[in-house]
């Protein structure tokens, strides 16, 4: 509020304060600054490609090196696009004086000078990043500086589509990758992060492209070395064929959460999880078959269950509602059942009886078959204030 007032008015207000009031004002301002600064700078976004944010980002980079006390509060950094300045900047004179190249060199200098100050950085997000005009050697130097930050544990790479160097990052706890060429990067990051617990790989479907083997995520580990991943998400153009199952399952012995939405998953995978007694607390799938249902019925204790059924209308639904869901009734917090077509996977009297047994349920996402919905039966309505119902 005070910052919006003219300087002359602020000086006048200060001159009217008594000595004691002036001291109190300075003390209060100092305390407010101390409280607000960590909150304001906890998460910072860097987007040099945007014309309207360019000067703001350049000032921020300059402050990283010159005002170290600000840098130490930054725990999360978002980097959008490349490190290039916007193309609309400068005009004709800017171009003929080689101003763009000077701006790029200044960006590089400020990045390399400021990154070592980010001693509290824990999470690093890249969105659509590419080397741009900076040059591969310069990008590698910047990535190397980022990878050596002492507390960095989360690396999120989004919208990846080209060459970029992430291979220096190490000792991560959480890796997330969304884009092309994931298996050119992920195996090395996994191998360099022995304590990795969370891993997500999303590979976009491409025309005429052959899906890659999901097993590749662990191909960088040396022989005899197993992963300790607890939460695994696989999405998109990936496959898990039968012959890969005996190799990948040993890497999943610590798994508690699995979200697998890929092109194909061999039924033997679920049989192997059942035999190895790997019990998932969080499971999300879009290929429902007998092996999966047998696996889900072999244990109890799931907290989140998401099934997207695209096969036969009623395949497996009687077994799920009658025998499988009740086994997880004491622990289930979220249930998501999304059939492609109307049928017995939809909410009806039988499924409602099974759902009522889930006393801890907070989130319910189901489909209702309107032709079978009995609006006159009040027992078909879930009235618990603790349940969020999505139909």
From TrEMBL:
Domain of life: Eukaryota
InterPro entries linked: F-box-like_dom_sf, F-box_dom, LRR_dom_sf
Domain F-box, chain residue ranges per copy: 1-44
Range of residues in the leader sequence: none
Protein name: F-box domain-containing protein
Organism (species): Armillaria tabescens (Ringless honey mushroom)
Source species taxonomy: Eukaryota, Fungi, Dikarya, Basidiomycota, Agaricomycotina
């Amino acid at each position: 509020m005070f910052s919006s007032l003219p300087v002359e008015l602020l000086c006048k207000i200060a001159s009217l304060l008594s000595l004691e009031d002036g001291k109190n004002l300075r003390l209060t301002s100092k305390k407010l600054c101390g409280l607000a600064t960590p909150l304001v700078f906890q998460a910072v976004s860097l987007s040099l490609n945007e014309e309207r944010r360019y000067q703001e980002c350049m000032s921020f980079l300059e402050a990283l090196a010159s005002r170290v006390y600000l840098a130490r509060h930054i725990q999360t950094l978002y980097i959008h696009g490349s490190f290039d300045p916007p193309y609309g900047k400068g005009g004709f004179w800017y171009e003929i004086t080689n101003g763009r190249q000077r701006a790029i060199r200044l960006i590089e200098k400020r990045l390399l000078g400021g990154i070592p100050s980010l001693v509290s950085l824990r999470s690093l997000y890249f969105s659509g990043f590419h080397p741009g005009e900076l040059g591969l050697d310069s990008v590698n130097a910047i990535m190397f500086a980022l990878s050596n930050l002492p507390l960095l544990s989360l690396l999120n790479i989004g919208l990846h589509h080209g060459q970029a160097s992430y291979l220096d990052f190490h000792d991560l706890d959480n890796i997330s990758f969304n884009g092309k060429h994931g298996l050119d990067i992920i195996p090395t990051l996994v191998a360099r992060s022995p304590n990795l617990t969370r891993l997500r790989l999303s590979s976009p479907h491409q025309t005429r492209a052959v899906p890659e083997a999901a097993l590749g995520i662990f191909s960088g580990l040396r022989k005899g070395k197993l992963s300790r991943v607890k939460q695994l998400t696989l999405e998109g153009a990936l496959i898990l064929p039968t012959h890969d199952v005996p190799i990948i399952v040993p890497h999943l012995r610590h798994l508690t959460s699995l979200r697998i939405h890929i092109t194909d998953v061999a039924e033997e995978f679920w049989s192997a999880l059942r035999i190895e007694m790997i019990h998932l607390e969080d499971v999300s799938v879009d290929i429902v078959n007998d092996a999966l249902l047998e696996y889900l019925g072999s244990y109890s204790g799931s907290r989140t269950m998401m099934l997207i059924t695209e096969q036969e209308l009623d395949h497996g639904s009687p077994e799920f509602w009658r025998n499988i869901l009740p086994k997880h009734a004491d622990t289930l917090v979220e249930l998501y059942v999304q059939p492609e077509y109307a049928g017995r996977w939809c909410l009806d009297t039988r499924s409602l009886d099974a759902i009522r047994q889930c006393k801890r349920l907070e989130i319910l996402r189901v489909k209702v078959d309107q032709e079978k919905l009995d609006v006159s039966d009040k027992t078909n309505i879930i009235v618990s204030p603790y349940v969020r119902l999505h139909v």
